[in-house]
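Backbone shape codes:
***
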Amino acid sequence: MIEKTVRMSLLFDFYGQLLTQRQQEFFKLYYDDDLSLGEIASQYGVSRQAVYDILKRSSQALEEFESKLQLVERFQRRQSALAQAMAEIDAAMEALSPLEAMGDVVQRLARARAALVEVEAAGVEA
């Protein structure tokens, strides 16, 4: 269930603006605020079934957007590649740290890692 919630939240972050206003409201209440179907239904004066149907259609729409655009998949691949590159740079810096003559190389690696961190942060904010 947690994996589904995380996936839906990620899909919503990328494609939520493509849903109707009501779908967005119900989605946020259910996934972000952790309200039950009954609580949402009571708040909006509709049936639990209506809330369920709206959430189901919203989830299906988000999955359909992802299947066509694959923005989340590309984002996750990029994040994984960045993490791998940073791990490799960290390992290289660790291996070079005892060699004083290699100080310039270590500094360059540190700057490269800092640049990757900036790229990663910009990707998360986008």
Observations:
- The longest helix spans residues 71-96.
- Residues 73-125 form one domain.
- The chain has two domains: 2-69, 73-125.
